[in-house]
Amino acid sequence: QVQLVESGGGLVQAGGSLRLSCAASRRSVSIYAMGWYRQAPGKQRELVASVTNGGSTNYADSVKGRFTIARDNAENTVYLQMDSLKSEDTAVYYCSADVAGWGPDYWGQGTQVTVSS
Length: 117
Prior knowledge:
Elements: E1 4-7, E2 10-13, E3 18-24, E4 33-39, E5 46-52, E6 57-59, E7 67-72, E8 77-82, E9 91-98, E10 106-107, E11 111-116
């Protein structure tokens, strides 16, 4: 079992920055991939970014060049640095843990990110 606790969401103006954090209750080095998904009202949940325990990253096209995912296995934490935020980034952001490489097994409770234009 893995518990994920997110923090760092909030309200920011367009063009601003936010950093999300997600702390895992289990040694993150044993988790294949950790990532961030988001869900806007009326839309499906979508992958934003993910990082494997080997350091390989994957980003949605819509956030490439603006968001950076980083993983600190010593702290069992994954971060999402979001820069140049746009109104279309407004969503609930969820942290995920993929233990064996077959897709997310665990989810955080979600943190709201609102970007005002």
